[in-house]
Amino acid sequence: MSRVKRGVNHTKKRKKLLKLTKGYRLGRKNLVRRAKEAIKHAGVHAYVGRKDKKGDFRKIWTIKINAALRGLNEKYSYSKFIGNLKKNNIEIDRKVLADLAENNPEVFKNIVEKTMK
């Protein structure tokens, strides 16, 4: 049986790993053991960040809706508006409401007037 040398595969594996850590600081970019750890942590943070981004969008939608409401009526707040939407069985999600408030203010105004009754 012939002997198999694995140097090529080992080098390829390390090069691939170090390519992923390009731009990292200190030994995390060129020391294999530290690079491995850095990639593992970066992956965790990236996963959490993708989840956080969804919450950030929801906050932005809330701010846009509230700003549009205050522009129409000083005393009408976001919480009262959402409560009235639920009472009147109007099922429009916040993403759509924020888009309407920003791009179609007249349609948004109609929705607000329906909820104020």
Number of domains: 1
Sketch the major β-sheet. Answer: none
What structural class results from the helix and strand content?
A: mainly alpha
Mean pLDDT score: 93
Shape designation: rod-shaped
Task: Specify the CATH homologous superfamily.
Answer: Ribosomal protein L20, C-terminal domain
| Number of helices, counting only DSSP H or I runs of 4 residues or more | 5
Order of helices and strands: HHHHH
End-to-end separation: 88 Å
Description:
With 117 residues, the chain is an all-alpha fold. It has a single domain, classed as c-terminal domain of poly(a) binding protein, CATH 1.10.1900.20. The chain has 5 helices and no strands. Helix 1 packs parallel to helix 2. The longest helix has 41 residues. The N and C termini lie far apart (88 Å).
